[in-house]
Specification:
Distance between the termini: 11 Å
Strand content: 15-25%
Shape: globular
Strand order of the largest sheet: 3-2-4-1-10-9-11-15
Number of strands: 27
Bound molecules: 5-amino-5-deoxy-1-O-phosphono-D-mannitol
Structural class: alpha/beta
Oligomer: single chain
Number of helices: 18
Helix content: 25-40%
Largest sheet: 8 strands, antiparallel
Amino acid sequence: MCGIVGCKGNMDLRKYLINGLKDLDYRGYDSAGIAFILKEKINVYKFKGTVENLESKIPNHIDSDIGIGHTRWATHGVPNDTNAHPHLSFHQHFAIVHNGVIENYKDIKDELIQQGFEFKSETDSEAIVNLIEYYYLQNNDVLKSLFLIGQKLKGSFAIALLHESEPDKLYFYKQASPLLIGVSNDFNLLASDAAPMIKLTKKFIDLEDGQYGYLTSTNQFLFCNGRPIDIVYSNKEPELLVKDLNGYPHFMLKEIEEIDIVIKRIMNHYFYEDKFHFDSKLIEAINECDHVTFIACGTSYHASLIGARYFESLEKNTSVFIASEWAYYPKFLGNKTLYIMLSQSGETADSIRCMQMLSKLGAPILVVTNTKGSTMERNATYSLLLYAGLEVAVASTKAYSAMITTLALLCEACKNNIDVIDDLNNVCKSIRKIYFQKEQILQIARQIKNSPDVFFLGRGYDYEMSLEASLKLKEISYIHSEGVPGGELKHGPIALIDKNVPVIVFISDKIVALSMRGNIKEVESRGAKTFIISSRSLKHEGDAFVVDDTPIYLSPLLKSIFAFYLAYFVSLEKGLNVDKPRNLAKAVTVE
Ligand code: M6R
């Protein structure tokens, strides 16, 4: 989704804006632009295409100390130069970059057109900058105008704003879309996440919804509801936020091969000196609840399915919902429910909407996220960080493993079962073995890369992992795929099986191994080419890939490594953009 950067002060503005946009490019975008003030005039450069394209078209040196930049992921209007940000206001007094969606922009646009304003783009964002200018022309006060737009706009808007006659102030507003401020001695920064700023500062302000203000070279001024407010600073860990390929050809490959380290890091955070270290109030809340409801999207939803099984082992009733479904068809399953929301980014709009609904009711929410200071983390009753480090590839891998690991540790902590530590250490060893066997997975990828459809089959944990395997493949290889429970095959999906459809079968659990072997016969007799991914003690001759045995609850951590590599290699073999697949964004900050 859109990325915002901005800076004010003594620094290389061109370098920060361009590198900052590159650091945000993993979020997904289709056009890019910057604006800066020079001699009381706003200069705008914006183009459809890449940040590199923008870089080649802007001056080599920019003699300004205040500027904003943007990568746009089209929502309102096609990707083109005109719809790209920054947008100038009608009288050209202001320039804005915006992340979010303005729900009532049509009404605002109509009202402003009646007031004589003209619009150039199809975007909702242009309505914001013109509304600010409209108010400013009446009150001559930018802060007051920002306060007023907060009352008028409906939807989500993180914005950075330049005012041509105030080159000493970089204005901003945060409402329901992410925006952070990076603080230094003689410059101040802002961005959609910490990645562009972390090389320059460790000191941050995590803005809350409804907060707005401005940055000068040496100071930050924060307001809410028309009043100045005290600023709370936070520190972030640079090593977890730097975007660096470290010699790898793609972030996805790097992130897959970090999974063992991530699991260890999580263990070190939540278990040391022979004891689990979780917030005692959280453990109490788990002990006292009788229902656990998970709400999440995409990969985080798939990790939630695994997490729910862990809570069942604590004899809790569980349910798992897709956030965008729950938001419109909420189910409340009693007063003694603990809500658990998983989110890599902590900024997913669908999940945040559910959180807001739950918070209004005072429901207890545990957020499990990779992003410290994110909207979800800050608004949670309890939160657990994943310590996975920045995940750049759009296809989430290490965050999935981190979620499963964290939930496994949490549930075993509730049972005070420290065997989980040995189990996870063994899993790490087994994962490292798979790193060295990836050539075998490449060979399988070569055999399925031209298929129009791929099926993944499994039962129990393997079924839930199949859903993730399927999502990963479709996201980055554009092959249609489905994850199907083995037993469901004959209730419909088998109609689609023929010699052109490879079927990848996971077998981890001995109680369903025989049934799965039966399913293999069923699809093979319809001509399907099968690839069986089994655990060592359940392997048969001819199985395509074998992983070490592990207690069944941790099997998704091993089998998913196979699935991640498979998706990666298919995408690579097809010559696709592994890290930035078409139409997708890393942080889905609009509903
Ligand atoms: O940041 P979140 O975990 O809330 O994101 C949820 C989904 O958008 C995300 O998992 C998406 O499905 C990934 N691209 C999957 O690889």
